[in-house]
Amino acid sequence: MAHVSLPSPTSPNLRMRERRGDLSPREFAASVRRAAREIGEHVSCDARYIGRIESGAIRRPNYAYERVFRHMFPGATLSDLGFTPRGESRRAAVLPAPRDEENNDVQRRTFLAGGPLAVVTALSWDTPAQAQSSPAARAVRGAPSEAVAGSAALPGSGAVLDPGMLPPSNARVGLREVREVESAVRQIRLLDDVHGADTLFERAGHTLRTAYQLLNCGTYTARVEQRLQASAGELAISVGWLAHDSGRLAEARSLYAEALATARMAGDAALEAHAFCNTAFLARDAGRPREAVRAAQAARSAAAGLGSARLQSLLALREAGGWALLRDRASCVKALGESRTAFEQGPSDADPEWMSFFNEAELAGLTAQCWAALGEFESAAHWAEQAIALQPTHFVRNRTLYTAELAHDQLGRGAVVDAAVTGMSAVALLAQVRSTRIRGMVSATAERMRQHEKVPEVSDFLERYRMALAS
Questions:
Q1: What is the rounded CA–CA span in Å between residue 280 and residue 299?
Q2: What is the rounded distance in angstroms from the CA atom of residue 10 to the CA atom of residue 433?
Q3: Residue 432 has what DSSP assignment?
Q4: Which of 41, 195, 200, 328 fits a 20 to 30 Å CA distance from 164?
Q5: Per-residue pLDDT for 214 more than 50?
Q6: Cα(214)–Cα(228) distance, integer angstroms
Q7: CA–CA separation, 280 vs 301, rounded Å?
Q8: Is the Cβ–Cβ distance between 271 and 234 less than 8 Å?
Q9: What are phi and psi of 172, to 5 degrees?
């Protein structure tokens, strides 16, 4: 097996952080909106957008934001503000550039109907580099595609993809190619469980585009079509999750919609339940709690005949998360109870493969988030502690997530010193995690702690967090 060498996390934009000064992200976002109005621009800047800039997730602002920043900081170039200049060469995008989060009406992804690509490759992450017998498989063992021309090939591959090796658009698709798509889904989930999404998103997108090219332009039997639809839909959900976890919420929403459309066309209830499940989670994180509740309820309805109690447990938790944000305590507690009851029925052969992450620790972690959203931080901290204790040590991403959640909950209940100590543990784990979402949680806790900066433990935490950002 080829050794997986993941790239380094995106470097933080310390220059924009310096420009913010003593303002909180929310206050700085408000100043950006005011500056925009002064020059007749309209931007829906919020604290999360500022966080994405400072984390380095946004390497180059769109033209509207560029004009606003130039108005705010006269004479400053994009380089002066820590961004990549527009004149620099850059990789052509296979995935669309991340849309601004203020644009909520998302078009379905246009890249799926793009130019010809080879048969899917499982990202060359965990498969032998040698060529296979089919022309399509041989083409695919090359490398990332024209999107990364000029950069190194993916691990395990020998060269950049040669367009002359691509099969015709009506290439024959068989079970071998379907298994490659299924393998890609498994590898994405495995690497995300360990590392987080930030460095995986773009590479996974190459494979997703290829999978839909097969589905839309290949020729295959009815049996292959059924499996290809299911695996392409699951791949869309996996890449959507990578988008979600790396802060690209608009792209995640579009990808989940693509998976849902695939499920509906295929009449695949299991895929539909999965797509609605992830849509509910995304809606909760995006601050759309009613959509979260409706999506979770739709998922529960789709999953009703699948026979998986564990799936119903997770879907009840998704619904509980929406109710918690709506501050409907009774509905939230009811859904939490239904989730626990279903979970205690135990695993079964009907449980979907993608639910391998859903264990006792995840149940506790999601329960903690519900209590935190209700403002009941004593209960939230209890469940977060349970999540940390139950999580296997090799799942660094989730351990970091639960640790960040515990720090948030301890601060919520007024245990400032405990929160600082826990926060330092989260910071120590951050170097191993590529997740904008988790980094954002730690950042939010650090921001709230600044008012307690005179407490020695808090001061230590903030200094370690600052050093982690700079490293």
A1: 9
A2: 11
A3: T
A4: 200
A5: yes
A6: 8
A7: 13
A8: yes
A9: -75, 130
- C-alpha angle 214-217-223 in degrees, rounded to nearest 5: 60
Q: How many whole angstroms separate alpha carbon 342 and alpha carbon 307?
A: 11
Q: Rounded to 5 degrees, what angle do the CA atoms 255, 257, 258 make? A: 65
In terms of Cα–Cα distance, which of 450, 449, 421, 425 is closest to 438?
425
Q: Which amino acid is at 417?
A: V
Q: What is the dihedral of CA 30, 31, 34, 35, to 10 degrees?
A: -140
pLDDT single digits (tens) 76-106 = 888 889 988 765 433 333 333 333 333 332 2
Q: Which residue bears the tokens 């705010």?
A: 72
Please check the confidence at residue 216 and state whether its pLDDT lies above 90.
Answer: no
| Backbone angles phi and psi of 187, in degrees to 5 | -65, -40
What letters, b where the CB count within 10 A reaches 16 and e where it falls short, cover 372-408? bbbebbebbbbbbbbbbeebeeebbbbbbbbbbbbbb
Distance CA 251, CA 245 (A): 11
Would you state the pLDDT for residue 197? 52
DSSP letter string, 248-307: -HHHHHHHHHHHHHHHHHHT-HHHHHHHHHHHHHHHHHTT-HHHHHHHHHHHHHHTTTS-
- Residues above pLDDT 90, as percent of the chain: 40
Q: Decide: helix, strand or coil at residue 308.
A: coil
pLDDT digits (tens, 9 = 90+) for 30-87: 899 888 887 877 777 888 889 889 888 888 888 778 888 988 998 888 888 998 876 5
DSSP codes, 203-240: HHHHHHHHHHHHHHH-B--HHHHHHHHHHHHHHHHHHH
- Let me know how long the chain is: 471
The alpha carbons of the chain give a radius of gyration, in whole angstroms, of: 23
Structure token pair of residue 138 = 């041989």
Per DSSP, what are the bridge partners of residue 172?
Answer: 219
Q: Which residues contact 164 (CB under 8 A, 6 or more apart)?
A: none
Question: What integer is the mean pLDDT of 395-416?
Answer: 91
Which tokens belong to 164?
A: 């002359």
Residues 310 and 342 sit within 8 Å (Cβ to Cβ) = yes
pLDDT > 50? residue 207? yes
Q: How many CA atoms lie within 13 A of 444 on its CB side?
A: 19
3-state DSSP call for residue 393? Answer: coil
Q: Which of 439, 463, 437, 428 is nearest to 449 (CA)?
A: 463
CB 426 within 8 A of CB 404: yes
**Helices and strands, number each (H, E), in the chain:** 19, 0
Kindly give, in sequence order, each residue whose CB lies less than 8 Å from that of residue 312, ignoring residues fewer than 6 positions away: 300, 303, 338, 342
